[in-house]
Every structure is written in C-alpha cells, then in structure tokens.
Amino acid sequence: MQYVSTRGHVKPKGFIDTVLMGLADDGGLMIPEQTPVVSSEQLQAWASLSYEQLFLEIFSLYINDEIPKDELRAMVARSYSSFRNKEVTPLKKVHDSLYILELFHGPTFAFKDVALQFMGEFYSYVSKKQGEIIHILGATSGDTGAAAIQGVRGKEGIKICILHPHQRVSKIQELQMTTVQDDNVLNLAVKGNFDDCQKIIKDLFFDLKFKGKHHLRAINSINFVRILAQTVYYFYAYLQVNQGNDKPQLINFSVPSGNFGNVFSGYLAKKMGLPVNKLIIATNENNILERFVRTGEYKPGDFRSTHSPSMDIQVASNFERYLYYLLNEDAEKVSAYMEQLKSEGKIVITGEDLLKVQSEFVALGATNQQCLDLIAKYKSEHDYLLDPHTACGIAAYEHAHMDGEVTVALATAHPAKFDEAIILCEIEQEFPEEIAKLLDQPQFQTVVELDEAEIVRQLIDFYQ
C-alpha cells in the first residue's frame, strides 16, 4: 500500500512516512493509492472480534508490514488500556430504529481519544525507532487538543503545542488542556476562532523549510492515521447491530461533523465494503457542509458561536479528501478547485457530480434551540443525556429517518464536557470524578493575538 496526495505532486509514500508528513508537501492531503475492499465473508469472520482485534485487522490492510504485528498489538493495547469500558466504543439501544455509539469512554471523554491515544503511542514508537525528536503541532476546537495532549504528555522525545480559540471552547475543554503542566506541553490561546487557528497550522506545515527544521508532525485529522483509526468503530458498530442476524441489515450513521474527518472515516469504511445505507452529516448553525450537500456550493459563511463549540467550524479540512473521490481521483481537478476556493472564496459542484453527492450524503444543520429541545426530550423520554454535539446528530437522524431503517448516532462527547448547554435545559448532571477535580486545578496557557509571527516566536522558544 502506497499513499499519494490529493493534489498529485508528492511521490508515493509508505504508511510511516505518510503519517509523519501529515499535510502533504504540495498542500494536499494524503490518501491511499488504492482502497482495500473487505469481502462479505471477511466481514462475517470479523463479527466475533474484540475492538482491539478488529483494529489490528483493519490496520493490517494499510500498513505494508512496516510495523511488526506484535509491536502494533502492544501499541493498540496501551492505547485503549485507559478507556473506561472494555468494549472501547459500546453501543446503546435507544429503541428499535436508533442506537447510540458511545465514543466518549477514553481519558478525555470525547471521540478524539479513539484515534489520538493510538497516535500518541505511534509517535512515541517512531521517535524511539528513528532516534528523532518529534514536535507535534495542532489546532483544536476543543476536544482534539485535550486528547492529543493526554496521548503524549510526559513522553520522551515528543513536544506538543496546541492552538485553541481563546474563550471559544467549553470551560471543561479548556481545563482539560490547560491544567496539564508537563514540560513537553504548550497551550496557546489565540484571540480568534478555530478556522483562524487552523489556517496558521496549515501555513506552518506548508512552509517546508520551517516544517523540516523543527520536525513538525500533525495531530489534526489532516493526518490519515486519524481517519483510519476512526473507521474501526464504524465496522464495530455495524457488526454489533447485526450480531446474530441471519440477514444483516444496512445501517445509517448520523455523524456530528465540523472538520469532516469523522464522517469521512465512515465514507472510507463504506468504500471498503461496509454495508452502509445513509451517511447523515450533522452540523450546527455553522452549516457549510449542509449547504454543500443541498446546493453544491462550498462557501464559508459567517462564523457563529453555538452550544456545540467543537463544530464551530466553517472550513472543513477533510472536505478535500472527499472532493478527490468525487472527482474520480483526478488530482488536477482537485488542485484547480482548491485554488478557486482560495482565490474566489467558494467552489460550486453541479450536474452529475452534485447528484452523486446527494446520493452519498444527507445533511442537516441543527439550530441551537433544536439541540436544547432534543437534550431535554431524550432525557425525559429515554432517560439518556445527550451532549449538544450528539444532539445535533439526533436532530439529523430525526430529519433523515424513514420507516424500516436503523440508524447508529455517534455520541461524540460526554455531556459533562458541555454543562453550559445542559444547565440551559434545566438538567442537573453529576460530573465524573476525573472532570470534577479539574475545577480546582491551576491553569497553564499563554494568551496570544491572532499573529502568526508571534506564534512562531512562541514555538521557537518552546522547541529550544
């Protein structure tokens, strides 16, 4: 298996080099040269596997034997040893047509843990094997930063700097990042929004001299290993729903999505042969992805702060990966579209291409009030407390559901991380001990202006 860039100007790379590259050197995103396809017989054989065993089977299709199986197995075991549920991503049945896949049982109570605890182990493995220091640099709308820091804090040979939008993440998200005082962690609170932070990260990774000199490595979902790790729970959920069924049924997935990485993982799983019926994209009032599916126009709009801050994103990084497949893997067309987005501020998909988009996705941008109403409704009617991002997913499920269908809605975070929204629903929740104890701890962060030069100065000081 080799990996290429969506823009076509990077020589094919192996798995480890692809992960280390992060953002492709030509500004594109790395994707597998071919997508491995899982047969129905192979899928059936996976039905009895544990989550960790399934992870190993899926990754073995992509890693070219670059990591010995026993070493990969040890990394996976360490990655999920800190999860509070032995199933890693347990499935809860709400009623006959709806299941909730709980992705928040990792150390930071968010779905990002599923991929980032493994990435921390992977970077530590590479650092030791290659004898090089690794400087991880990422932007977060809240959850990625906490999960990434937890995955690498205290690890020898690794330093991590995370940019987050100052006062635009939940208080618990902020505390999970900024109460970590390990010497290899730097938190920069940027006076801007997530898209501002993400643009700075991409600019620095595209500066190949700076990237090479400082051994920069990506932790955001521009890194393909994030995407691949997330495909595992789509397979796992499908196999759990259909356990014991003589005639396996197609499953819908409703996916809260801001940066398009989570739902793209579902798209990749479908390309691999997973029998997915609908992929439902759930966004909030920052609804660029809904508008794209509905009209074909991909155009960042006015930024809005919402009760689901992890999805307060207008520019979805992983959209380019989907565009590559939509355009039949034509890297020249992808490059032209991305240049048009940069110069004109939008791209428009029409005709057969738009019909293809609409055959592959359904989308809904839920309002703040819809999310609050659904949090209250599901607590009252099903005794299940949704976080506001998962509530967006439930809104999209209710919008797209048809009789006879079964949907798995992805619960991307524990509600304790977003108590500001839960309080508005007049619901009092009990915080898990790990979250409650954060409230009394000192914080370590540096507040900076939206100034790339100042951020670079902070990084250079940190790396020395």
TrEMBL record:
Keywords: Amino-acid biosynthesis, Lyase, Pyridoxal phosphate, Threonine biosynthesis. Pathway: Amino-acid biosynthesis; L-threonine biosynthesis; L-threonine from L-aspartate: step 5/5. InterPro entries: Ser/Thr_deHydtase_PyrdxlP-BS (IPR000634), Thr_synth_N (IPR029144), Thr_synth_N_sf (IPR037158), Thr_synthase-like (IPR004450), Threonine_Synthase (IPR051166), TrpB-like_PALP (IPR001926), TrpB-like_PALP_sf (IPR036052). Residues 95-323 form the Tryptophan synthase beta chain-like PALP domain. The keyword Transcription does not apply. Residues 2-80 form the Threonine synthase N-terminal domain. It catalyses: O-phospho-L-homoserine + H2O = L-threonine + phosphate. PANTHER family: THREONINE SYNTHASE FAMILY MEMBER (PTHR42690), THREONINE SYNTHASE-LIKE 2 (PTHR42690:SF1). Belongs to the threonine synthase family. This is Threonine synthase. It comes from Paenibacillus shirakamiensis.
